[in-house]
Each structure stands twice: as C-alpha cells, then as structure tokens.
Amino acid sequence: MENYKTSLDAAFHALSDPTRRAVINRLTKSPAPVKELAKPFDMGLPAFLKHLRVLEESGLIATEKTGRTRTCQVKIGRLAEAESWLCEQRALWQARTDRLADYVETQMSRDTENDG
Amino acid sequence: MENYKTSLDAAFHALSDPTRRAVINRLTKSPAPVKELAKPFDMGLPAFLKHLRVLEESGLIATEKTGRTRTCQVKIGRLAEAESWLCEQRALWQARTDRLADYVETQMSRDTENDG
DNA sequence: GTGAAAGTTCACCATATGGCAAACAAAATC
DNA sequence: GATTTTGTTTGCCATATGGTGAACTTTCAC
C-alpha cells in the first residue's frame, strides 16, 4: 500500500473509488459488519477487505472487532476535512471572481464618465 | 491512463495528489501558463504535464493554447460536485445522529416517568 | 466437539501511476 | 534565419492498485 503523506491525500484517494464511496454512503445511515457491507458488491471478500483497509487507513472509517464480526462506522472528521479543503478553494475562487466583477464594473463606469 | 467511470471518481482521484491540489489552489487565484504552474515543483515538465492532464480529464481545470503557451484555469463546477457529495454524506450522518439523540432523549424521559 | 459463519492471510496477476531522460515541434525574439 | 522559450511526445522504469483463488483462524450454534 502506498504511504500517503497527508490525510487529504489518503482521504481523497479513498474517495476516488465507487465501491468505497458506496460504503461511506451506507455507513452514514448506521454502523455495519463487514459481511453486510460487502453484500452489494460483485467481488470476493479479500478484495473488499482491501477497500475497507484503505478507508480505515485514510481515517474515514473506524472498525472494531467483537467476537467474530468486525463492525465499521464513519468517522465524520476526515470527511469534514476534505469538505473544508474544497470549500476553501471555492471561496478563494469566489473572492477572485468578485474582485474581477468589481474591476469590470469600475472600468465600465469610468468609460461612461469619459463618454458623458 | 485509467478510465474513471464517473466524474466523482476522476475528481477525487485528481485531488488525491498534493502536486495537483497545489495547482488547483494556485489556479483559484488566477489563470496561469504551464511553466509558471510547474515552477514550484521539483519534477520535470513531462511529469508535471501528466498531472495537468489528469486535472483536465477530471474536468477540474480547462486549458487553452494560444501561440506557444497553454493557459490553465479552474473549472469550479467539478470542485463543487465533489464538495456537494461530501456535504450530502455529512448531512445523512447528521440526520442519523440527530435521530439517535432524539431516541436517547425519549428513552431517558420514559425512564424518568418509570422512576417517578 | 462438529460444522457453519465471518474474517483474514497468502501468493499471484494485469494494469495504472508517477517519475525520468532524450528527442522533437512550434512560436517568439534577436 | 538562428536561437531561445515553451510545450509535447516517446520509451522506459519501479511501485501501487484492485482483483483472483486457496488455505487458515476464530467464534458461534447445534
């Protein structure tokens, strides 16, 4: 497995796979054991366990084994970190487009002055 | 290059690399040509171009060549799509924890009734 | 205590990723 | 028109990813 340096690397990587996103989506509704999580997917348990491990190592889910079943649940913090990063980028972009709109407006009113 | 089925696959994959996230961050401030974008990074142009292509194929940026320079800019829509997905998951999780809190509260008040 | 259930580990495979160096193309500059 | 600048293509490499089947462990139920 690759060593993702930052938590964002690992979180976004984990989210880039549809199986893993579906698992997250399922887990937002309630915690669940491995077998139930794996049921909707057309792949063997070993492959599915790899996905779970990617999710766990990214910090997007936590798992705990009691008896012979392993229960998984979402850790909302990591999800929120990723969301924050995206929000920040959108805010920066928005700030720029706002400044640009201001500038264009200023130019237009200046042109109007010159015309009048 | 892998064929990501959905735009979310491609977007999250693109965002899982620190170089590519840095490029997005830079581009939120203003469009820029390839060479300027590549300057902060300790890698050759060919490697950097691969990153740019991943970003472009994911729809997170658009590029246009005029003369010998290629100018890149953020496409905010894709960023917003990814953010929306995360927001949705958080909302689902929140809804559940709210229901859970309600339930616990109900149980507690019932217990109090039984106690009194 | 036998057997099924739920995970887990292992060895293996094809393909994708992320980097390099070198050669090339096209446009701007002198 | 020779040179530099900017980007592009090509071939190559090591490692990561996402899957498989087979063997194994532990726990639960009978």
Automatic annotation (TrEMBL), chains A, B:
SUPFAM superfamilies noted in UniProt: Winged helix' DNA-binding domain
Domain HTH arsR-type, first and last residues per copy: 1-94
Source domain of life: Bacteria
Gene3D superfamilies from the UniProt entry: Winged helix-like DNA-binding domain superfamily/Winged helix DNA-binding domain (1.10.10.10)
Alphabetized GO MF terms: DNA-binding transcription factor activity
InterPro entries according to UniProt: ArsR-like_HTH, HTH_ArsR_DNA-bd_dom, WH-like_DNA-bd_sf, WH_DNA-bd_sf
Pfam family name, one: HTH_20
NCBIfam families: HTH_metalloreg (NF033788)
Protein name: Winged helix-turn-helix transcriptional regulator
